[in-house]
């Protein structure tokens, strides 16, 4: 502190005990993780038995009811799994040598049928190989989530492109190092600038997709962003309402710690 003549007049130090607050945050995270985990076992059993029941010779009305039950049980399981993922420590990655090109190719191939069914075209522009130090499970989830969003939020007749390239060396992102850049682009619903700002918040879903009753939890992108940041990377989005969206992920090729 300084007095009226601007002379030093002492120091005030304020301490605040935040132990209770930290405890409360930890308890909440543990609670979410435990509850989601406990929900999973009975739900898996319900889905399993519904599966078996649907193999029987059934009255069409009963079949319809069971189909609806099964669809909703699966949705609930998806929600619980997402909750568990978001409660899990997303800042911890286990890195190893990964061929990112193959990882993206596998993800693109596994959504081919789904894309065709939705009346969409999917184009992949990938190098033969791109080695990086990354967590293969978490990066796989990043790619899967961006592709599944592109499919869900693009009306029939639209197109999706996924590309991977190397940015690099001097003059690259942050002026150095080599980076992988993954881009998933769609010609879908898109979103307004205001919606774009809230996209990575837990449980946020745009009004359009809620009204259209497209299934989802609003957790995927928050989890995705956590995974990308844990790799020392960034995720960017550009989008225009009724035109389409582009999601860009950049991670350093030599891993988060380098
Ligand atoms: P979910 O897909 O389960 O709702 P996400 O966190 O993955 O959760 O996405 C949050 C919201 O962002 C979506 O509900 C949707 O409104 C919007 N969104 C995400 N990806 C796209 C996309 N490719 N095109 C248009 N909107 C999108």
UniProtKB/TrEMBL annotation:
It comes from the Bacteria. It is found in: Cell membrane. It is an enzyme of class 2 (transferase). It catalyses: ATP + protein L-histidine = ADP + protein N-phospho-L-histidine. Its EC number is 2.7.13.3. PROSITE patterns: HIS_KIN (PS50109). Residues 34-255 form the Histidine kinase domain. One of its GO terms (molecular function) is kinase activity. SUPFAM superfamilies: ATPase domain of HSP90 chaperone/DNA topoisomerase II/histidine kinase, Homodimeric domain of signal transducing histidine kinase. Keywords: Kinase, Phosphoprotein, Transferase, Two-component regulatory system. This is histidine kinase. It comes from Citricoccus parietis.
């Amino acid at each position: 502190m300084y007095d009226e003549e601007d002379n030093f007049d002492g120091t005030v130090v304020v301490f605040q005990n935040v132990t209770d607050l930290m405890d409360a945050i930890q308890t909440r995270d543990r609670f979410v993780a435990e509850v989601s985990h406990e929900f999973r076992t009975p739900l898996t059993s319900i889905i399993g038995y519904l599966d078996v029941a649907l193999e029987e010779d059934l009255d069409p009305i009963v079949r319809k009811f069971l189909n609806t039950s099964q669809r909703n049980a699966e949705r609930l399981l998806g929600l619980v799994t997402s909750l568990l993922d978001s409660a899990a420590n997303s800042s911890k990655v286990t890195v190893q040598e990964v061929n990112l090109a193959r990882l993206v190719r596998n993800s693109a191939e596994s959504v081919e049928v789904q894309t065709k069914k939705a009346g969409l075209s999917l184009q992949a522009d990938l190098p033969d190989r791109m080695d990086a130090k990354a967590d293969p499970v978490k990066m796989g989830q990043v790619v899967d989530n961006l592709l599944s969003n592109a499919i869900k939020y693009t009306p029939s007749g639209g197109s999706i492109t996924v590309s991977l390239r190397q940015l690099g060396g001097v003059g690259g992102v942050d002026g150095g190092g080599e980076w992988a850049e993954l881009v998933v682009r769609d010609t879908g619903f898109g979103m307004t600038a205001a919606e774009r700002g809230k996209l990575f918040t837990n449980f946020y879903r745009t009004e359009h997709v809620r009204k259209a009753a497209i299934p989802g939890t609003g957790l995927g992108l928050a989890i995705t962003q956590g995974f990308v940041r844990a790799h020392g990377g960034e995720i960017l989005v550009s989008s225009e309402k009724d035109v389409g969206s582009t999601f860009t992920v950049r991670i350093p090729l030599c891993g988060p710690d380098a």
